[in-house]
Amino acid sequence: MEIISGNTTVDIAALNERINRESAFVDVLNLELGKAIIGQKYMVERLMLAMLANGHILLEGVPGLAKTLAIKSLASAIHAKFSRIQFTPDLLPGDLTGTMIFNQKENNFTVKKGPIFANLILADEINRAPAKVQSALLEAMQEKQVTIGENSYKLEEPFLVLATQNPIEQEGTYPLPEAQVDRFMLKVVVTYPKKEEERMIIRQNMQLAGQTINPVVRQEDILNARKTVREVYMDEKIERYILDIVFATRNPEDYKLNKIKSFINYGASPRASINLALASKAYAFIKRRGYVIPEDVRAICFDVMRHRIGLTYEAEAENINSEEIISEILNAVEVP
Q: Which of 201, 216, 231 is the endpoint of a domain?
């Protein structure tokens, strides 16, 4: 079956077959990660999504929900370099990016690279560090490079930042500004495991030897998969559907959503449209499909949008959160 998209003709059957073949490593990766991580399939799937769509994740959840274990296991499974940075109020930008050190023997300055020079970065409790440090990290995320002294250094691909926020303790924290939060492709809310899963977690942790994660996927496979993800076919109807969802956050009255208008301070940015399209393609790839369906968009909509809608005081007074607004929009916008 061939479809004409713009000036090109897309052979859906051939594309579907190729993507089904090239996405085979996803199952292998899931199997390997399952050795160390019990439950939390949603978080692991979102980690893979971000990696394939070349985006970053903001993770929100109480301590002890295997956030560090998940990204560390992923790094081991793809044979990538992992760095964990604990954000504290006394952290300096140089502690993150690196600095110039004077070498007395050579009588010159040499560069000492910081922990940001890795493939997978865990920025633990990002809201504990002051704005200068946060912006240093976010610059690296956006530009994929770091400037030390007069020189800029490219960061190695794949480069994925997973930043965590503790939703409970807010004393002595520096909340991320909206413009910086917008740079994260996904905001994932991690919940507690089910009772049966927690029973298995207890049993696993009672064993003397921990599970070893072996490298099962090459980094080149991930980088090639990123190119393939962009080739996943997206129909114009799906594009319009994405635009309708995003525009409904800006002009709710155009979609007969007058009841939520007073709750929205500002709507989602164009980054939301780009990331919704990219994440939908990555989700289709993970599901081993060569084309995007509306269910793909709906599946990742909350993760892409929840941190991009500004709420009014009225919404906070009535205990209305961004997820309820997204639900209203998804129910109102016509599905193609």
A: 231
Evaluate if pTM is beyond 0.85.
yes
**What CA–CA distance (Å, rounded) separates 327 from 243?**
16
Tell which residue, 128, 193, 161, has the closest CA to residue 59: 161
Q: Are strands 120-124 and 82-86 parallel, antiparallel or unpaired?
A: parallel
Tell me: pLDDT of 10 over 70: no
> What pLDDT is attached to residue 298?
94
Q: At residue 37, does pLDDT exceed 90?
A: no
Q: If pLDDT is split at 50, 70 and 90, which confidence band does 7 have?
A: very low
What is the 8-class DSSP label of residue 220? H
What residue numbers bound the domain in which 248 lies? 234-336
DSSP state of 306: T
- Based on the domain organization, do 221 and 238 belong to the same domain? no
User: Is the CB of residue 135 less than 8 Å from the CB of residue 126?
Assistant: no
Three-state DSSP class for residue 260: helix
Residue listed under structure tokens 């520096």: 174
